[in-house]
Write a structure and sequence with these properties.
globular; four-stranded antiparallel sheet; mainly beta; 18 strands; 0% helix
């Protein structure tokens, strides 16, 4: 299961492993446990991001197929453009998504779809659990990062390419899964 907070409520996304369907449930308040949405993703929930898009706090859920989103959990939208997005992050007033083969996309409005950006060219075995996130650069500005099974990469947006950082670790299927930005530093797991 995955949990997120939106407008001071806690929600959970639960997958039914016999059917493969994922549903969003309210986990606080008088309607505790209420099912709010059956998600359209094809491989369960792969990532959840909560941030501001076009001035509204937005919840975005990726599932390796369609992307579901809401600004009000009573009403949901789905992006059905088959980009196979599995990782999400908010960065520089945009929502970024990466497919399971490293193709990066961005949008300022989910109703309008995604714009293609750069590609993180790695063996697909190293892309199994990519985590996108907004984090600090050495110059104090923020950048978009991708934590992978083999190391940490940063987006060079001016040149449309990914650069490998000096943080390397041996290939591990759980490498890069745990990422935290705290007090201006990045913490990345290299395995469990």
């Amino acid at each position: 299961s995955n949990m997120f907070i939106h407008n001071n409520n806690v929600y959970g996304v639960f997958q039914n492993y016999s059917t493969g369907a994922s549903t969003v449930h309210l986990l606080t308040g008088v309607n505790f446990g209420a099912s709010l949405k059956t998600l359209t993703g094809v491989s369960g929930t792969t990532d959840i991001a909560v941030g501001f898009l076009a001035g509204s706090e937005t919840v975005v859920i990726a599932g390796g197929g369609d992307v579901d989103w809401t600004t009000n959990p009573a009403s949901w939208g789905s992006n059905t453009n088959s980009t196979n997005i599995t990782a999400l992050a908010f960065h520089n007033d945009l929502l970024w998504g990466m497919s399971n083969v490293g193709q990066l996309y961005f949008t300022h409005d989910l109703a309008l779809g995604w714009t293609t950006d750069s590609v993180l060219n790695l063996n697909t075995a190293f892309m199994a659990r990519v985590k996108l996130f907004d984090g600090p650069r050495a110059d104090g500005e923020n950048a978009l990062y991708a934590a992978t099974n083999v190391g940490l990469y940063v987006l060079d947006s001016a040149n449309g390419r990914w650069l490998k950082t000096s943080l390397n670790f041996p290939q591990n299927s759980m490498g890069g899964v745990g990422v935290a930005v705290w007090r201006g530093s990045i913490y990345v797991s290299s395995g469990l």
